[in-house]
UniProtKB/TrEMBL annotation:
Protein name per its UniProtKB record: Protocatechuate 3,4-dioxygenase beta subunit
GO MF annotation list: ferric iron binding; protocatechuate 3,4-dioxygenase activity
Family membership noted in the UniProt record: Belongs to the intradiol ring-cleavage dioxygenase family.
UniProt keyword terms in alphabetical order: Dioxygenase, Oxidoreductase
Residues of the Intradiol ring-cleavage dioxygenases domain: 52-234
InterPro entries documented for this protein: Intradiol_dOase_C (IPR000627), Intradiol_dOase_core (IPR015889), Intradiol_RC_Dioxygenase (IPR050770), PCDO_beta_N (IPR024756), Protocat_dOase_b (IPR012785)
EC number: 1.13.11.3
Coiled coil feature spans: none
BP terms from Gene Ontology: 3,4-dihydroxybenzoate catabolic process
NCBIfam families the UniProt entry points to: protocat_beta (TIGR02422)
SUPFAM superfamilies for this protein: Aromatic compound dioxygenase (SSF49482)
Species whose genome carries this gene: Kaistia hirudinis
């Protein structure tokens, strides 16, 4: 159950809502059959090193780390729709989470990842690496520039395709505090045909993963913008995929 009856105030505790997240075993998403736990989960306490470090700082971020159009380019800009993705990282009380390391990775405009295990026949773009990172500012804001990724096929059912998406990781104050999710693009019909997305129980939860086209934040004659807020817990919590496995 979600926290619809909870009084929203500072310090209110929000139980993790497991009904908001997909069951670990969703057979239409075939790899979940082997990945899902077969035994009862064991709760492990954090160690001191997991709790205390590292702490991320702005000094570790390079000037092009949040610019996927330029951070791998050598002979020119990558091919594809120029895109801004921006938003805020918020806690369960809608307070900004500042200083959070946000990482993102994605396929290129043809739906091809730059990864040694990638087998899709779409071309590699020599000017596109497909990953970046940034740290949220005092208002919890993040921003990056990229090209819109393409859909790609994957070996699941006979003809399954992933909708265009960007993978996100949000770190807390230590490596043991990490949440991972995926962002989709408003208006994409492929979202509702994806076996991974369809593993999420409610349409409302899926919609937390869909970035809204924001014409006001777009740059005329240059770049379209999509807005994606990430909410860590509570009534408007983003659906994080690593909770599937009970982590
Ligand atoms: Fe992907």
């Amino acid at each position: 159950m979600r926290n619809d009856n909870t009084t929203y105030q500072d310090g209110a505790f929000f139980q993790r809502d497991r009904a908001w997240h997909p069951p670990a075993l969703t057979p239409d998403y075939k790899t979940s059959v082997l990945r899902s736990p077969k035994n009862a989960l064991i709760s492990l306490g954090n160690t001191i090193s997991e709790m205390t470090g590292p702490v991320f700082g702005h000094a570790m971020i390079g000037p092009l780390d949040n610019d996927l159009i330029r951070n791998y380019a050598t002979t020119g800009d990558p091919i594809g729709p120029r895109t801004i993705v921006y938003g805020r990282v918020l806690d369960e009380n809608a307070r900004p989470v500042q200083g959070a390391l946000v990482e993102f990775w994605q396929a290129n405009a043809g739906g091809r990842y730059r990864h040694k295990k990638e087998t899709y026949l779409a071309a590699i773009d020599p000017n596109f690496g497909g990953c970046g990172r940034t740290i949220t500012d005092d208002e919890g804001r993040y921003w990056f520039r990229t090209i819109k990724p393409g859909a790609y096929p994957w070996p699941n059912g006979v003809n399954d395709w992933r909708p265009a998406h960007i993978h996100f990781s949000v770190f807390g104050h230590a490596f043991a505090q990490r949440l991972i999710t995926q962002m989709y693009f408003e208006g994409d019909p492929m979202i509702w045909q994806c076996p991974i997305v369809m593993g999420i129980p409610s349409r409302e939860a899926v919609e937390t993963l869909i970035a809204a086209l924001d014409r006001e934040a777009s740059l005329p004659m240059d770049t379209l913008a999509y807005k994606f807020d990430i909410v860590l817990r509570g009534r408007r919590s983003t659906m994080f995929e690593n909770r599937r496995e009970g982590n």
